[in-house]
Automatic annotation (TrEMBL), chains A, B:
PANTHER family: TRANSCRIPTIONAL REGULATOR, MARR, TRANSCRIPTIONAL REPRESSOR OF EMRAB OPERON. Coiled coil: none annotated. It comes from Streptomyces inhibens. It comes from the Bacteria. This is MarR family transcriptional regulator.
Length: 168, 168
DNA sequence: CTTGATAATCTCAACGTTGAGATAAAAGCA
DNA sequence: TGCTTTTATCTCAACGTTGAGATTATCAAG
């Protein structure tokens, strides 16, 4: 059987037979790209059901899993999120307006801003995260569990080789 | 060894031990998400070196691999690209301004617009695509080839099960 | 202390995408 | 022929992100 990436490579084979040997990374990256799109779209919808953007949901879960006191600096999100500082500021701004988090100035270092999950933020996170996991499970409902594990393990090794070994 | 996703799951295990059993999809999707970001950023830079956006590069290669006469309708890009119609119109607008493609009205159906790769577009595509593949190879330079193939095969099966079987 | 360098966060214009709606042409049907 | 539905593309305001630069605070040296 063949998927969308096979079809794309098949087209290249006809039009540019000279590059076929160099297309093997496309087998991996092309599928990563397509899957990322599908999963992203689905996750976005799941978060939207709780009134939060995908990026905002990322902030919420990062705070939640950091444990008590559910407080992190803006810089911590920068390193954890793979986006730029402007995006983080924007996210926190909107989340503060929604009452999901609050900015707290630190006593020790007045450059840093601590972001704290509010009680309301806790509730939204709990509900949205449950839906998020249910959505993930739904997406993989018809996929063999062993295949998921083996493929995830393969991706882990690729990530390690690429140097993505920490939350940063 | 452990990567960023292991670290994230480790945090969840401490803070929310009740959900650990439901985190297995994260092993797959979390890594797909992170890898997509890394690869995307890299591909974006490679395309930018040739003066084209990532989305524009996608249009160029779609046209190129469609073969002679290197002409597709706007609707074909819609189905192939996983973005909305507004994005396609915007892309074609800018690419037309750059002289990469040209809009040609069809004789048979005057609703459809055919997008044709110009000679300049051909040249840019050839050069950018070569760099693109070199960049891909570079990213996977230190990764075992067999691991890449096996992981790509796993992702293909996931994509198939999710229903992404055609270019559409 | 003072000066310069470093660090953390915010500002803001530009950019690409979204998504609902508009426009216009073709197809189906009476 | 007229009328409605469908199809293809474009319009446009809102949105989140980028990326360079500004701001403010801390640190290191002298």
């Amino acid at each position: 059987m063949s998927d969308a990436v096979d079809a794309i490579i098949g087209q290249w084979a006809k039009e540019r037979p000279d590059v076929v040997e160099d297309l093997w990374p496309v087998q991996l990256f092309g599928r990563i790209q397509r899957l990322a799109r599908v999963v992203d779209k689905s996750a976005r919808a799941a978060a939207a059901a709780h009134g939060v953007e995908h990026g905002e949901f990322d902030v919420l879960t990062t705070l939640q899993r950091s444990g008590p006191p559910y407080t992190l600096t803006a810089g911590a999100f920068l390193k954890a999120s793979m986006v730029t500082s402007g995006a983080i500021t924007n996210r926190i701004d909107k989340m503060e307006a929604k009452g999901l988090v609050e900015r707290v100035r630190d006593g020790d270092d007045r450059r840093t801003i601590k972001i704290r999950l509010t009680e309301h933020g806790h509730e939204v996170t709990r509900a949205a995260f449950a839906d998020h996991l249910a959505n993930y499970a739904q997406l993989l409902a018809d996929v063999d569990r062993d295949l998921v594990d083996k493929t995830a393990e393969g991706l882990r090794q690729v990530l390690e080789t690429l140097g993505d070994t920490t939350i940063k």
